[in-house]
Specification:
Blueprint (H helix, E strand, L loop, with lengths): L1 E5 L4 E2 L3 E8 L9 E4 L2 E5 L5 H5 L5 E4 L2 E8 L6 E5 L2 E7 L5 H12 L4 E8 L6 E6 L2 E6 L2 E9 L18 H16 L9
Parallel strand pairs: 5-12, 6-13
Antiparallel strand pairs: 1-10, 2-3, 3-9, 4-5, 6-7, 8-9, 10-13, 11-12
Length: 195
């Protein structure tokens, strides 16, 4: 499983916490994640369709912390929608839930500005591709499953208001992923397996 964050604004009002957990690549830099200088990742339109249509469960959690559960797809306390921009979520605001109160306050103050999600590529041999475009290594993701999503204070996608946060556990994993991507772009076909 991997994590990615979206810089697209989340909102909170008296009725809901909402935002885009993930966005599709549309040609704008803010719709791709920079995993490392010279190495970007893009979710292609339709990447969430199969998972979404299966009605598989997903948790709505604050900053990937399942102990701060805000909603859940299977219980109906989180609604998901595929929009032209990407995967959108709404969590009905529960004024009696202390976690909702705390997260809503952080969003209102502007401390929490984006969303994040945890995903897995369904078939690594088919549902992702690597390309080299003039020295820029690109990972295009075509089909994923989603485990959880929700608000986060550290969105990772490039954008005017966001800083990069690596989705990988440590520097050695980043180096390994970059090396494999370079090899896939230079010497195709190359068997790639992500950690």
């Amino acid at each position: 499983m991997e994590r990615r964050n979206s810089p697209f604004k989340i909102s909170v009002d008296a009725s809901k916490i909402s935002g885009f957990a993930a966005v599709y690549w549309n040609g704008e830099q803010r719709t791709q994640a920079t995993l490392r200088p010279g190495f970007v990742e893009r979710f292609l339109p339709g990447a969430f369709d199969e998972w979404f249509n299966s009605n598989a469960d997903a948790l709505g959690a604050y900053d990937h912390d399942e102990r701060i559960l805000l909603g859940r797809r299977s219980s109906g306390s989180m609604k998901l929608e595929l929009r032209p921009e990407g995967l959108y979520y709404e969590i009905p605001f529960d004024a009696t839930d202390p976690d909702h109160q705390k997260v809503a306050a952080k969003i209102r103050r502007g401390d929490v500005t984006g969303s994040s999600f945890t995903f897995g590529v369904i078939d690594k041999a088919v549902d992702q591709e690597f390309r080299n475009e003039s020295g820029l290594y690109i990972r295009n993701i075509k089909r994923v499953m989603v485990a959880e999503l929700g608000p986060t204070p550290l969105p990772a996608y490039a954008g005017a208001t966001a800083e990069l946060r690596s989705a990988l556990a440590d520097q050695s994993q980043v180096e390994s992923l970059l090396t494999r991507a370079k090899q896939a772009c230079i010497i195709p076909p190359y068997d790639i397996e992500f950690l």
